Amino acid sequence: MGAILNLVERNLHEVQVDADRMLFHIPSSSLFASDALTGSIIDALRGPGCTPEDLIQQLAGAYDSTDVSDTLRELMALELVSDGSLLTPEIGVKRVERTAINTVVLNVNTGCNLSCTYCYKEDLDKPSAGKKMGLDTAIASVEMLLQESPDEERYTVVFFGGEPLSNRPLIEAMVDYCEQRFAAAGKFVEFVMTTNATLLTEEIIDYLNAHRFGLSVSIDGPKTVHDRNRITVGGQGTYDVVRRKAQMLLSRYHSRPVGARVTLTTGVTDVETIWDHLFNELGFAEVGFAPVTSGDISSFNLSSEELIEVFASMKRLGRRYLDAALEHRNIGFSNLHQLITDIHEGHKKALPCGAGLKMLAVDHKGELNLCHRFTGSSLPTFGNVHDGGVKQVELNDFLSQRLDRTHTGCDSCRIRNLCSGGCYHESYARYGDPAHPTYHYCELMRDWVDFGIEVYSRIMAHNPAFISTYITPRKAH
Ligand code: SF4
Ligand code: SF4
Fold first, then answer.
1. pTM for the complete prediction?
2. How far is ligand 2, taken at its centre, from the CA of residue 432, in Å?
């Protein structure tokens, strides 16, 4: 008599796509189409368990016993079916012991030439009061990167602000320094910057183009939407100037695709119209949306009802992404494109993002923060580039807290290996504790992932070449 078999519900999530039963293997974030036999085994094991012999007997009218045994073995190897043996711990390590940081964010100026009403930056200053990072601090940050992680092949230096172009001399000095330093070390370095576009000139664009910057422009949509919040220090809307500069950028910049980053705050939920404007009218290659739910100024946060509308609008845009994908076109909806990439590559995230793990952000004093959103916050920093570098023990203590999902809602959540508790800064802003999971829109996130599974399944069924053209090549960069 064999052991009693049971379905491991915590590892399995099913999404029905037309006639297909898609099985989402939660531990590895991978997707399989279930064949009829697999479906029959799952159905037979739902409810009270049974022995392998009982199962073979139950299915004997429809399936050969060897096929049942083989499929059962595969399901047991995936730990979707268990005979009561202990399951493999999903997160192999209990503690983060070493972090291979390959990205440093330089907060080159706390000052910004704009005065966007909702700006989350903890250390944002008016232009005249901006604290600029010195060259010594920027160089020490890059040296810290090479010293902490000498064995990486590729490194990224991110210029962040305030408005980074308001400290252009530092950016240019660092590009010179890094290009020589990394080439001498036989390594590759890339530069990334998010800008409000207002300070761009033809000369600056050509410079950025020559050094292949990865660029994102902060722009919130059509004039009526953008000018609600993205205003000058004097209170004027900035849409007209940003549009003009963005068009100049898009017409001259050829080294890489340029993205738009949209911040969604209260009263702004129409993702589809915003995308249409930025992608079709202005010509951005991709558009990414950041819904604000836990900003420091709570009056800008989307309400629960608005957040539901944002996700509904994202799904409507997602249907257009799918229709285009089936015609082999990518409409640059970054949020969905990233989710499809995660599902395709089976990303399994023990931690929500690279903050503290692959990336650290440095402020003008050289203090090391989890990411760009923490510079200037009251969260203790994780060392200083001028004084001993990364406080590895403290950093690892912090990351290890999030790694441990015991007694959290995330432990049994079906998207636990895609979400991993959500953004540390959102948690910090909402609960005062960056290690606390962001529970406030879990249901919407789970539904969004189900939607991504459906879109991915349809693309794989009807135009798998879309994945190899638009998704697989990303790995190489
Ligand atoms: S924060 Fe919510 S959605 Fe994310 S893993 Fe935890 S329970 Fe799931
Ligand atoms: S902590 Fe949040 S804001 Fe910072 S890198 Fe992670 S997801 Fe982004």
1. 0.92
2. 15
